[in-house]
Design goal:
Helix content of chain A: under 10%
Strand content of chain A: over 45%
Number of strands of chain B: 11
Number of strands of chain A: 11
Radius of gyration of chain B: 13 Å
Largest interface: A-B, 19 and 19 residues
Helix content of chain B: under 10%
Shape of chain B: globular
Shape of chain A: globular
Strand content of chain B: over 45%
Structural class of chain B: mainly beta
Oligomer: heterodimer
Distance between the termini of chain A: 40 Å
Structural class of chain A: mainly beta
Radius of gyration of chain A: 13 Å
Largest sheet of chain A: 6 strands, mixed
Distance between the termini of chain B: 37 Å
Number of helices of chain A: 0
Chain lengths: ~110, ~120
């Protein structure tokens, strides 16, 4: 079966760095997405990785290792507004998105 | 960038009534629209995939007669929750794929449905 695993909840301090991991087993792979979702709102796109390596975009970076079925989202210089859920999603061979359950990130002052 | 407009953002309805949710792609043609449901503190659950001009494909366990999906044009898809029950209360989100981008998935702003 298809499976996406990510931690349920993480806590970090304002100004610090946090890494949210995601492992996956899917039927085929056509890319991995990270989305941010604030409570009561729809997800917003953060990043897309289809090749191995690190993609940096401002304070956020995303890494992918296809051979290990592994990705992480790295958030630097954390701000209170970064408190949200972070969803990992993989596009399978049918170009359908398989969603992880999301990681709730709590930022403390 | 690509924008999907979803209405209404919040709706409260009585049990037994029907509610229609609309999603419009504003600056691109959405040949495919995905409808998701999300329970509190849970991830997105794909309900159905609709393609313009054809019948929607429903995921296992989703009642097609209860959740009616219409995708009559390249810019509009609707989800109608028929004979709503309190257990249908949830957050419903649409997502459209912008074929002009390799990975163009854009989400609507979501609809919070409360059935009383």
């Amino acid at each position: 079966g298809q499976n996406i695993d990510q931690p349920t909840e993480m806590t970090a301090t304002e100004g610090a760095i946090v890494q949210i991991n995601c492992t996956y087993q899917t039927s085929g792979f056509n890319g991995l997405f990270w989305y941010q979702q604030h409570a009561g709102e729809a997800p917003t796109f953060l990043s897309y990785n289809v090749l191995d390596g690190l993609e940096e975009k401002g304070r956020f970076s995303s890494f992918l290792s296809r051979s290990k079925g592994y990705s992480y989202l790295l958030l630097k210089e954390l701000q209170m507004k970064d408190s949200a859920s972070y969803l990992c999603a993989v596009m399978d061979s049918n170009y359908q998105l398989i969603w992880g359950a999301g990681t709730k990130l709590i930022i403390k002052p | 960038g690509a924008v999907v407009s979803q209405h209404p953002s919040r709706v409260i309805c009585k049990s037994g009534t029907s509610v229609k949710i609309e999603c419009r792609s504003l600056d691109f043609q959405a040949t495919t629209m995905f409808w998701y449901r999300q329970f509190p503190k849970k991830s997105l659950m794909l309900m159905a995939t609709s393609n313009e001009g054809s019948k929607a494909t429903y995921e296992q366990g989703v009642e097609k007669d209860k959740f009616l999906i219409n995708h009559a044009s390249l810019t509009l898809s609707t989800l109608t929750v028929t004979s709503a029950h309190p257990e249908d209360s949830s957050f419903y989100i649409c997502s459209a794929r912008d074929g002009g981008r390799d990975y163009g998935y854009t989400f609507g702003s979501g609809t919070r449905l409360t059935v009383v």
